[in-house]
Amino acid sequence: MTAPPLLEVSALVSGYDGSRVLQGIDLAVTAGESVAVLGRNGAGKTTLIETMMGLVRASAGTVRIDGRDVTHRPTSARSRAGLAIVPQGRRVFAPLTVHETLQISHRRSGDWTPERVYELMPRLAERRTNLGSQLSGGEQQMLAIGRALLGSPRVLLLDEPSDGLAPAVVDQVREILEGLTSGGLATVVVEQDLRLAFAVADRVAVMRKGVVVHESTVAEFRRDEAAARSLLGVG
């Protein structure tokens, strides 16, 4: 029996300033599953993530978290329902220390604590008194992940987590994400780095011009080089 989705979007339409970017998206993610959202620049991947989170308003369709319709609910309500985002560019609070950022992000009733984040990412513990502006790109990405986890989400949305990072740091991010999904967290990962996407994801959903044009397991997608070239322009 197929597990019910934790996050499900149906016929989702949204955009900016009167323009439609998402043209009717259907996508579902179950507990402990990781879905990589792929596509060329301008396909609507970031808009999808931000519409799921409520940062962009949906004009049609539905967003459900564990069966609950949150389509017209604010971002704060979606967070309480179990959704969290790690935005592209990290967007850490430059004037705050690592520990201050984690403290203000901590939902007291949740499973995650700053101490648990430090256990997952010891580098943050080493840098706990440093300001956000004093962190490397990789450290900022870890902090952005830790900040999101402190909402104790059931589904984590990540927008280009490898953006601007050295290969060794991307490997660290991969290990973190693999550990989170093995612990039952569902993830949706928008990613241009196919090496990272294929390493952490169970399934891929490829977008083109605001619609999902292909879905398959990672293994199936990697075997079909013709589809990869056609959909993404790569071998």
Question: Characteristics of this structure?
Answer:
alpha/beta, 4-stranded antiparallel β-sheet, 27% strand, single chain, 235 residues, Rossmann fold, 6-stranded mixed β-sheet
Q: What is the C-level CATH assignment?
A: Alpha Beta
Poorly predicted sequence stretches spanning 5 or more consecutive residues:
none
Number of domains: 1
Largest sheet strand order: 6-7-8-3-9-10
Number of helical elements? 10
For the biggest sheet, the summary is: 6 strands, mixed
User: Would you count the extended β strands for me?
Assistant: 10
Class inferred from helices and paired strands = alpha/beta
CATH topology value: Rossmann fold
Mean pLDDT: 92
- Which geometry do the CA atoms define? globular
Describe this structure in words.
This protein is an alpha/beta fold and 235 residues long. 37% of the residues lie in helices and 27% in strands. The protein is built from 10 helices and 10 strands. The chain has a 6-stranded mixed sheet with strand order 6-7-8-3-9-10, with helices on both faces. Strands 2-1-4-5 form a 4-stranded antiparallel sheet, covered by helices on one side. Strand 7, helix 7 and strand 8 form a beta-alpha-beta unit. The chain starts with 6 loop residues before the first strand and ends with a helix. The model has no long low-confidence stretch (mean pLDDT 92).
